[in-house]
């Protein structure tokens, strides 16, 4: 029996839909076209007052190859994420570009990234080409999300100086790893296992009033855009006598 025109059209649409879905899945690793600028200051590294809350640590993270982001900041969820960024001018730009970490929020003339001067120059083939890139100020780029890797570094937390033991706790998560976002954080008492969900104050800063008492187990939810998520529990606990300004090593490295 011959197929009707309507049936053929439906089958063709279904095939095209499946093809596009498969292409989209494959293109999670594809480059996206955009533009990038650089910080106008004379410091080669990042800013110490970034919107992610990293402070001075954010200026030197990843060797200073850091960036502010506009849409990719995502109300702070994008803080700590890593992107491969390469400019497209073959006269100046290398093929691989470099990996940057998001530490701030900002945009300039329809850009997705405002790179540190160090990172902006790092896209170039040579030192002379780097000087030419910096003189341009804004360049066309391609970028894609990549897995964060911080060799010899575990995920750590830095207790904010404004914390008030034992009534108020705020901390920033450093050295985020893998290719997923940290979308939720819990603190759990290690003795009775009661847990409390923290609030994202801004950027990578998590806070809670009346935090649980005793040694605290940290739980982090790693999520991606496809809905794949998993809770990760570090090896080390936050001590019961935590102190503002202190940094605690979680003993954890992840590749999710």
UniProtKB/TrEMBL annotation:
The record's section on Pfam families has: DPBB_1, Expansin_C
What are the Expansin-like EG45 domain coordinates in residue numbering? Answer: 49-153
| A biological process term (GO) from this entry | anatomical structure morphogenesis
Provide the Expansin-like CBD domain boundaries. Answer: 167-250
Question: What keywords tag this UniProt record?
Answer: Signal
Checking CDD domains in the record gives: DPBB_EXLB_N
**SUPFAM superfamilies annotated for this entry?**
Barwin-like endoglucanases, PHL pollen allergen
Q: Where is the signal peptide?
A: 1-24
InterPro entries, per database record:
Expan_Lol_pI, Expansin/allergen_DPBB_dom, Expansin_CBD, Expansin_CBD_sf, RlpA-like_DPBB, RlpA-like_sf
Which GO CC annotations does the UniProt entry carry? extracellular region
Entry keyword annotation includes Metal-binding: no
Q: Which family does it belong to?
A: Belongs to the expansin family.
Q: Which PANTHER family match?
A: EXPANSIN-B3 (PTHR31692), EXPANSIN-LIKE B1 (PTHR31692:SF92)
Q: Under what name is this protein listed?
A: Expansin-like B1
Source organism of this protein record: Linum trigynum
Q: Which lineage do the record's taxonomy fields give for this organism?
A: Eukaryota, Viridiplantae, Streptophyta, Embryophyta, Tracheophyta
């Amino acid at each position: 029996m011959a197929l009707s025109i309507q049936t053929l059209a439906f089958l063709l649409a279904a095939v095209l839909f499946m093809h596009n879905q498969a292409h989209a899945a494959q293109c999670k690793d594809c480059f996206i076209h955009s533009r990038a600028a650089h910080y106008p200051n004379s410091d080669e590294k990042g800013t110490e007052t970034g919107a992610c809350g990293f402070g001075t640590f954010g200026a030197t993270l990843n060797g200073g190859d850091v960036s502010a982001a506009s849409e990719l900041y995502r109300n702070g969820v994008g803080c700590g994420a890593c992107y491969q960024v390469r400019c497209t001018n073959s006269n100046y730009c290398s093929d691989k570009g470099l990996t940057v970490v998001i530490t701030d929020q900002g945009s300039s003339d329809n850009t997705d990234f405002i790179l540190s001067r160090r990172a902006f120059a790092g896209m170039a083939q040579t030192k002379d080409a780097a000087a030419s890139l910096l003189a341009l100020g804004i360049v066309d780029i391609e970028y894609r999300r990549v897995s964060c890797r911080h060799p010899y570094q575990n995920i750590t937390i830095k207790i904010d100086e404004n914390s008030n033991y034992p009534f108020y706790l705020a901390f920033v998560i450093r050295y985020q790893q893998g290719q997923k976002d940290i979308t939720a954080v819990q603190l759990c008492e290690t003795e009775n296992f009661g847990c409390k969900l923290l609030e994202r104050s801004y950027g990578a800063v998590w806070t809670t009033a009346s935090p649980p008492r005793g040694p605290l187990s940290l739980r982090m939810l790693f999520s991606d855009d496809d809905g794949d998520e998993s809770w990760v529990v570090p090896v080390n606990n936050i001590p019961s006598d935590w102190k503002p300004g202190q940094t605690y090593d979680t003993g954890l490295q992840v590749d999710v």
